[in-house]
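Hey team,

Filing this mostly as a record. A colleague (T.K.) asked me to run one chain through the structure pipeline before their review meeting, and I want the input and output archived in the tracker in case anyone asks later how it was produced. No errors, nothing strange. Just documentation.

Input sequence:
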Amino acid sequence: MLQTEMPLAGMRCLVLDNEYLIALDIQIVLEAAGAAAVVCAANATDALAALDDDVGFDCAVLDLKLSDAAHTGVTVAGALSQRRIPFVFVTGITADDARFRTYPGVPVVEKPYQANQLLAAIGRALAVA
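Output structure:
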């Protein structure tokens, strides 16, 4: 593949989704786009622990609604914002949900999605970072 076909070449990415197959699909998309490493977390606690391990994430893909209603993708979004790590939301919730208003410039990709939609959203997030 040409470098232009590898928009995430060498990047380290965090994926937060409590649905294993969706997280795996996102990981495959990111790796096919050149990501050097993809760390998947099934809950906010594990995602926050990965951030605390300071592995130098370049971007993140977060599901908004997780099994633990007290700790959602919004919890992790706050930690990412503090660290100035760009992220996108990938969710089955419509993009006009009030929870997204906390992060007005963050791209929202609604499930089901195509790989090119996800990569375009990540590209927009990286461009404004």
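Quick notes for T.K.: The chain has four helices and five strands. The radius of gyration is 13 Å.
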